[in-house]
Structure formats: structure tokens, C-alpha cells
Amino acid sequence: MNFVVIRGGWIIKIVLLLLFFISIYIWYSFQWKTLPTFLSAEKESIREIHMVTGEFKTVTADGKEIESYRFSPGTIFLEKGETVHLKIYGVNGDEHPVIIEGTDIKATVKKGEETIIPLQFEEEGTYRLICLTHKEYEQNGPMIAYIVVD
User: pLDDT grade, residue 34 (50/70/90)?
Assistant: First the structure.
């Protein structure tokens, strides 16, 4: 009768190797069922970013009504050179004339309408989208959104 002697160190190595191959098989078998949440876009495609105008109102303890206008979201992120359509829907306020600081971009967002602003920045940095009607606290502002270009 022949006996095979396997040392304890080899048993651990064989078990670890088997676990490794089993985990690879399990991982691989589930990959065909997963879908990416963000499909890579062709270079010619244009990404859309949606934004709305909003308003906050309250009454202070002494009975004074105060309000403030905002963009939501307040910050968006773009890649340098990326082509984007910024779609702003006017929810609150009759009209918001806007500029993007450091550019020649101007537009007007009207209540109940969507304004589309094409964007493409070649310089990295942070650009401010400013409503000219609500620039300061005295004008129920500042109504500013930030465009961060990396």
C-alpha cells in the first residue's frame, strides 16, 4: 500500500488557490449581467445638464418677509473641451438675465420655459453663472451657480 504525504503548508496553498479560482469564476459569471450606469459617449455627443431656478421665502421674527433666489444644482462639473448643453428651466421669478463670468455668454431664463446654453470651455477653472437681477442680498440674491472645469 502506498501513502502520499502532504505537508500542512501545501494544503493551505492548495485551498487558497482553489478559493482564488472560484472567486474569479463567480466574478466573471456575474459580469455578463451587469450594465454600466453611464455609457461612454461618442466624442460627437453633447451632454445635457439640467438646472432650475428656485426661490426660498420666510418671515423673520419681526414679521419681515425675506426671499432668496437660487440655481439648483448650485455647482456643475465639466471636462475641459467637453461640449455641454446647460438646460435651465425657469420655475420661480418671471425672468433671470444671466451671464457666465469671464466669457461672452449671455442668456435669459423665463418662468415656465427652458433656456439652452451651449458650453465648451478650453480653460480649466471655476466660472460663475450670475443672474443680473439678483446679484446681491438686497436684490434677493446672490443667485449664482458655479461651473467647475477640470
Answer: low
Give the C-alpha distances (Å, rounded to integers) separating 124 from 6, 49, 61, 140. 63, 18, 44, 30
For residues 87 and 120, what is the distance between their CA atoms, to the nearest angstrom?
14
Q: How many CA atoms lie within 13 A of 57 on its CB side?
A: 6
Residues 6+ apart with CB under 8 A from 70: 53, 54, 55, 56, 143
Q: Record the cell numbers describing residue 138, joined without a space.
A: 438686497
Q: How far apart are CA 90 and CA 115, in angstroms?
A: 8
What is the domain class of 47-149 according to CATH? mainly beta
pLDDT in tens, 47-86: 999 999 999 999 999 999 999 999 999 999 999 999 999 9
- Per-domain residue ranges for the chain? 47-149
